[in-house]
Known about the structure:
By secondary structure, the protein is an alpha+beta fold. It has one domain: SH3 type barrels. Helix content is 19%, strand content 48%. It has one helix and five strands; from the N terminus they run βββββα. The longest helix has 13 residues, at 56-68. It is globular.
Amino acid sequence: MCLGIPLRVKTIKDSSTASVELGDSELEISTVFTPEVKIGDYVIVHAGFSISILTEDEAEEVKELLDNG
């Protein structure tokens, strides 16, 4: 089973790399599959790649489902 985690984009580093918030830390990810991503967007991250962009409401719903099983 694969699990994608919704995270918020903090900075865009270049055309294919961004930094996302992961708790109190930042994680560098590839945005090669979501080149249109912007600072503040929520993305589903799997294996270091953002694979889709979510609205804030969608991200919160996924986080709630993950937290509550």
